[in-house]
Amino acid sequence: MKLIYTLLVAVLFKGAPAPVAERWVIQKSSNLRIEGKSNINSFRCDITEHLTPDTLYFYRDDQSCKPIPIKGGLSIHIKRFDCHQKYITNDLRKTLKADEQPILKIELLNIGYYNGDAGDIKGWVNISLAGVVKTAEINYTVKNGQPGQLELLGTRKISFSDFGLKPPQKLAGLIKVEEELNVRFQLMLRAVEAKEIPLQKN
Amino acid sequence: MKKIIVSVAVSTLVLSLLGAAMLYGAILLFPQLMEEYFSPVFRPSGREDWLFYAHPLILSIALKWFWERYKSLFEGGVLFRALEVALVYAVVALLPVLWLTFSAIDISLGMISTWVLYGFVQALAAGIVFARLNP
User: Fold this and answer.
1) Which ipTM did the prediction report?
2) CATH code, domain carrying A118
3) How far apart, in whole angstroms, are the C-alpha atoms of residue A55 and residue A108?
4) Contact between B45 and A173 using a beta-carbon 8 Å cutoff
5) Which of A126, A130, A168, B46 is within CB 3.0–4.6 Å of A107 for a Cys-Cys bond?
6) pTM exceeds 0.80, yes or no
7) Which among B34, B51, B53 has CB closest to A175?
8) How many domains does chain A have?
């Protein structure tokens, strides 16, 4: 009886485990794609070189199952975009002000709680493009493959006007790129350390 | 004077519709060629857009002047006379100017060829309008 009482007290009064930070490094195999349409045809712009190997910190709290705050993100050189069509590539770089603001930044803010593989998870990011920062909701698919590896697939529709940009138009607007773009990124993450690091407040 | 204004107005309307139809037709038929319009040599849409849309009017006025001055030289049916006008316009105006354009600006031969065809068809249409309204 005493043992049961002791265990009960221990369970009830034990403080919840503090959230811990998982540290993940973005792998070279990660990629980002922008898909768009003109009234001529559709186009797809890929990053031809690997993304900068930044580190992401996930502050996971398995007790509360709340959305997981994230620290870190991606930095992408706009001039590395290849739309596989010479003229679209050049025009899009110019439209995105690649000379004045060469870096597209996606700062991950949080992701809905997941455990193992999960689809249709919501999360929030800050997108910095052409000198404008916009907070946007992202749809994620999470794939927890091998231990220590994580794949995040994120998609989001954005508009040129969200960033104060005007889509390319030629021949007095008769030939034009549509306002909406679809951004997809695939982050291949590798855990830096097997053990978890205690939460550090930002 | 009224005849001239009516002819120019009808021609402008016909050339505007024909121009749009040919452009969208080319987008359907030659999408890869049309992508070249995204080249930096072409002006982005902006304050000068009206210049582009005024083009059928400018061409109609020019061809109307030419028609009134030289229509006596063109004999035969409506279509034949219009064909001669289009041919003269293509050889005398289009070819030398587009030759110069091709030599100075980085555009493809395919693109220039579509402009020759575009101009020829426009002059043919204007010729038909003038040959019908002011024979």
Assistant:
1) 0.83
2) 2.40.128.110
3) 11
4) yes
5) A126
6) no
7) B34
8) 1
